[in-house]
Amino acid sequence: MRLVMLGLPAAGKGTHGRLLAQTFSIPHISTGSMFRAAMQLNNDLGRRAKWYIDRGELVPDGVAAEIVKERLSQEDCRPGFILDGFPRTVPQAKELDAALASMQMAIDAAINIQISEAEAIRRIANRKVCSQCGSTGDPGAEVCKECNGPLVQRPDDTPEVARHRLEVYMVQTQPVVDYYREQGRLVPVNGLQPIDRVFMQICQRLARMGIIKTPKPCEATIRREVDQ
Ligand code: AMP
Fold first, then answer.
1. Which residues pair with 29 in a beta bridge?
2. Calpha distance 8→170 (Å, rounded)
3. pLDDT per residue over 68-120, tens digit each?
4. Rounded to the nearest 5°, which phi and psi values hold at 149?
5. What interhelical angle do 195-208 and 216-227 show, nearest 10?
6. Do 135 and 33 touch, CB atoms closer than 8 A?
7. Model confidence over 148-183: pLDDT tens digits?
8. For ligand 1, is residue 17 a contact (CB within 6 Å)?
9. Domains identified in the chain and CATH numbers
10. Residue 204 CB: number of other CB atoms within 10 A?
11. Which ligand 1 atom sits closest to the C-alpha of 88?
């Protein structure tokens, strides 16, 4: 299964990308997390990406496409992968299609998690992420439930930077939604519902499209999450 997660910042791309990856035992590849990891290491990529991320701008297409292509060429991506935060522009989407075609692969579907801009702003203001593993923290929690790491506000979640990221999404990433829609690969879901409902809706749509056999494994994942 090869999927792309689309949606405004804080729509739930990371949450549902991680749940899908966990359910189907395939890698969850988040370009934002890869850039943040490079920034923590303060390597060349990190220093380059930081300049754009701090301003709420997109890192140049070539840089983003290179790290994704390198990651997708790794053995663990053979059975499938969930791409979260890539592609964010039409040139990136085209480059992804070309790179996959050269490996006799293709994106099966692009999940578009829909929320309003007002909801994105509200969620960003309240969002805390784990400074160790990048998971989104539970509301009101101080530590990450995945790894016990401290939860912090992302530097690019400040109101000014977040507002700019929403503008950038409308101009540069909304055309990516249209790109997948025109190709009949778009799966829109209502992101304003509770997490378990959104997740089950994604899985039911994937089952209906024949991308997964049944939504049953997703039910088991949700039950495990609730039990935790
Ligand atoms: P995210 O964690 O997906 O919200 O990404 C955080 C930031 O990383 C974005 O605001 C961009 O600056 C940068 N970024 C992540 N993915 C991409 C991409 N595919 N193309 C360009 N910039 C990206």
1. 83
2. 9
3. 999 999 999 999 999 999 999 999 999 999 999 999 999 999 999 999 999 99
4. -70, 160
5. 170
6. no
7. 999 999 888 999 999 999 999 999 999 999 999 999
8. no
9. 2-227 (3.40.50.300)
10. 15
11. 19
